[in-house]
Specification:
By secondary structure, the protein is α/β, with parallel strands linked by helices. Helices cover 27% and strands 25% of the residues. The chain has helices at residues 9-23, 25-38, 57-63, 98-105, 162-165, 202-210, 228-236, 250-262, 321-341, 361-370, 395-398; strands spanning 6-7, 45-50, 69-70, 77-81, 83-84, 92-97, 110-111, 115-118, 127-133, 150-158, 176-183, 185-186, 197-199, 218-221, 242-247, 269-273, 295-301, 314-315, 342-352, 374-377, 402-404, 414-421. Strand 15 (242-247), helix 8 and strand 16 form a beta-alpha-beta unit. It is globular and about 80 Å long.
Length: 426
């Protein structure tokens, strides 16, 4: 396994300084190092949400063959253990891409498009060790041992010989490449359980519950793709109400629309390809507009740097501190719209899947200063920890938001803040 996730140096240094600012020099440095280590491995449990009303324990046992339990706090949430194994690498080696390696840590098999190199002499049916190419430096077709940065993710039975594999044209690759019989982390694969059960991270489930939707309400989901939280909100409406789900990318909006239908919520969810910053009457651009103060609840799961997602070996998609700060600026623009879209007395839930306080605490602090109609309220259910100190929030405000930390909660990194729109003064 990779010892710790790698980031662009400028971004790494800035985030380390953020944690030093919050926790002090020694604790801050150590916590940031521990976080980077935690990001390279999956949480010790994975969660799934019951998507089908009335699904019994006997029904679940008929769907899954691995042990499970109900979450102690979250309703309709099933917990499955992720088992770590000590695996001795097989002598013959295959190199896969970093994304493929991360998928294996989450319980996937290795499919042919993910393979980059197969050692000389490897034949169909051989037991092979699987290594992820961490820096993308392994040339396709390499026969000699790969000496670049890599992470071992387990052993498996290869389904194709080296000779057969490299006869295939790249656009013809498809199907199972390696059956991962000895993974380093045994994570249950539950794709076959949909639509009855839907894999969803625990903080994401808590976020949906924090919206507190009630049957008959109208909800705005401002950045809805890929649709896990949208489907959860639809379940909580119990067949009564409407969700307006926005997504500015046409491709992602189409996939979102298909997803909610597959999960059985097509009647409750209206999907629109629309930039949420332009969704209200009076805004520029676009044809479809909604009246201000027309939604009972608003969910803003803001586009973010995704620095809390795990497992992952490297986080090099964020190339500069400027890019990192742009996410926070965009979230502020979206919160301005959310504050206008929600009815007085209604609730706005803001969330991200990042560890970066510039996208979390700083955004909440900005909203409290610049959006006087919004009042910060406690995010319930409260399963995380308080926000970071010395990042714009008072002691009381820090304990109203919740931060899910890969070390303290053994989850993905996640952040949730809840606002309520004040009633106008008479």
């Amino acid at each position: 396994m990779a010892e710790m996730a790698t980031l662009v140096q400028e971004v790494d240094a800035a985030l380390q300084c953020d944690y030093i600012k919050a926790l002090g020099d020694d604790l801050g440095r150590q916590h940031w190092l521990d976080l980077k280590r935690a990001l390279t491995r999956p949480p010790s449990c994975t969660t799934a949400r019951i998507n089908q009303p009335g699904l019994s324990e006997a029904d679940i046992k008929a769907l899954v063959t691995v042990p499970f339990k109900y979450h102690a706090t979250l309703p309709d949430t099933i917990v499955f253990p992720v088992v770590q194994h000590v695996v001795e690498p097989a002598a013959k080696a295959v190199v896969v891409g970093a994304l493929c390696g991360m998928a294996v840590l989450r319980g996937s098999q290795v499919f042919l498009p993910g393979i980059k190199a197969i050692g000389s002499g490897i034949c169909t049916g051989d037991l092979v060790s699987v290594y992820a190419d961490l820096e993308g430096t392994c040339p396709r077709g390499l026969a000699e041992p790969f000496t670049g940065a890599s992470a071992f993710v387990g052993n498996g039975i290869i389904q194709i010989s080296r000779r057969q594999f490299f006869k295939l044209e790249p656009d013809k690759l498809g199907g199972l490449g390696i059956d991962m019989t000895q993974p380093c982390y045994e994570t249950p694969s539950l794709g076959h359980c949909e639509p009855s059960l839907v894999l969803q991270n625990m903080p994401s489930i808590a976020c949906g519950l924090a919206v507190q939707p009630e049957p008959g309400q109208t909800i705005l989901d401002m950045c809805a793709a890929p649709g896990g939280k949208t489907a959860h909100l639809a379940c909580l409406l119990q067949g009564q109400g409407k969700i307006v789900a926005l997504e500015r990318s046409k491709k992602r909006a189409d996939a979102l629309a298909q997803r909610v239908v597959e999960l059985g919520h097509g009647d409750l969810v209206d999907v629109h390809c629309l930039n949420a910053t332009r969704c209200l009457e009076g805004s520029k651009g676009g044809k479809l507009k909604f009246p201000p103060a027309s939604f009972d609840r608003v969910l803003l799961d803001a586009p973010c740097s995704a620095l809390g997602q795990r497992p992952r070996f490297s986080i090099t998609t964020i190339l500069s501190l400027v890019e990192l700060e742009q996410f926070g600026s965009y979230a502020c623009k979206l919160l301005q719209v959310a504050a206008k879209a929600v009815k007085p007395g209604g609730r706005v839930v803001f969330s991200t899947c990042t560890l970066n306080p510039r996208e979390n605490e700083h955004v909440v602090a900005w909203a409290l200063t610049n959006l006087p109609d919004l009042e910060l309220v406690r995010a319930e259910p409260y399963l995380g920890h308080s926000g970071l100190a010395n990042h714009g929030l008072s002691e009381e405000q820090r304990h109203l938001v919740q931060r899910f930390d890969p070390i303290e909660t053994d989850t993905i990194g996640f952040f949730v803040a809840c606002f309520q729109r004040k009633f106008p003064t008479e």
